[in-house]
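note to self — DONT lose this again. spent like an hour looking for the file last time. sequence + predicted structure for the chain T wanted, 182 res
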Amino acid sequence: MDKRIERTNTKLRYSLFTLLKKNNLKKITVLELCKEANINRTTFYKYYLDVDDFVNQTEDVLLEELKEEVKNINRNYLITYIGKIVERIKKEKNVYPIILGSNGDKFFLRKILYLVHDESLNEWQRLLKKASEEDLNKIYTFIVDGSIGIIEKWINNNCKEDPNSIALFINKLCMSGLSSFI
């Protein structure tokens, strides 16, 4: 990628995160974002349709980074993956807590957690003989929704608790629920 484009994207990302600290994502305008980034709107529109398009492309980059990181996990399914996610959120406090926070994209954490949906269901089918495919999808939804609640609360508390303890807590809850299908 051209260095100028990369610099512009970096400026826009930092500006977005700055604006998200005080404004809801849906209220941020292209004008406001460009002013914060000190770039021309023409430059913005050369690469993006609107703020939503910019946010989606930014999230796609973050998702790709997470996919790369997940490739290194031996057992690539939801419960293991959640541990990686909370570690990443804590490590990159200038990015994830802001975009996942109260002013950010409410659905981005769900997108993150659904990255390993298929791998998780395949593993669970192998282990949980009493569960139908429909049961497994319901279990996955239940775990994702519960995990989102716990992770959001953790983010709102400035990620004070150790990421491993958050992941272990979620894991404990998941395992106790899954055990009834063994």
